[in-house]
Design the sequence.
DNA sequence: CTTGACCTTGACGTCGGTGTCAATGTTTAC
DNA sequence: GTAAACATTGACACCGACGTCAAGGTCAAG
């Protein structure tokens, strides 16, 4: 299948698909005319990329998941490298949440200080 | 005082001070030779900018606070416009926290699904 | 006079995942 | 045959708060 079809089936723009390939996450055979030729399995790979991006992973983070799928695993997360990324990501998210809560407290405190009459819910 | 002194006293780079001015947040008289000439009150203004940036405000968000200070208020947050920014910011932070918590749950769920033996604390 | 510390403006680089456009080649349908 | 829809690569634009470098003007100390 050509890039347009893969784009339509995955809901991902051709531009993004080329970008993924440029960064070594996707690969495509080339037809005689130079057009990219994708297989059915690429639909799954693109879906994996999008699923991970949507929960805040970077493109680079998705690499081990794709490798895992290509090695024949049924889910991209069932390899040791992927699990490591999961755990690192959870740590990062937890850290972000902590930072945000701290910031929220600071902002609320500043507000309370400069506007004593203003109540802050939460 | 010239930009170097203000930079040293506030801990903010000359580059940043010029950037603030470029965006209309700071203003300076000019000496005969073209050098910027700051007053004592600018130290306070820069401090206000940094305090707000450090808790996640954008530069644009700081504008009403600076206006408030320039109008003679003792704190940048004691004007109606500033309070509005505070409240909007709190909403944004709350929304970010909600989004992060949701993402955390999704990641944890994906991990649990692809690696049933992996426990996730939290 | 010269060195060096300071100032000026202007412009490019950063980070990430695209959108968009340009210039060109290919395939498909009429 | 030709137009429309598709493909290719390459490159610029975006967002935000700067860092950094370039090329030059200014000023005090030696």
Sequence:
């Amino acid at each position: 299948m050509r890039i347009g079809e893969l784009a339509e089936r995955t809901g991902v723009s051709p531009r993004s698909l080329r970008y993924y390939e440029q960064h070594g996450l996707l690969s495509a055979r080339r037809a005689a005319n130079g057009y990219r030729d994708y297989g059915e399995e690429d639909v799954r790979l693109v879906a994996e990329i999008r699923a991970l991006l949507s929960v805040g992973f970077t493109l680079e983070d998705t690499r081990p998941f794709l490798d895992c799928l290509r090695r024949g695993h049924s889910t991209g997360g069932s390899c040791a490298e992927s699990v490591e990324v999961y755990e690192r990501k959870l740590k990062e998210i937890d850290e972000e949440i902590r930072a945000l809560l701290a910031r929220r407290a600071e902002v609320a405190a500043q507000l309370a200080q400069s506007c004593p009459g203003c109540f802050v819910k939460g």
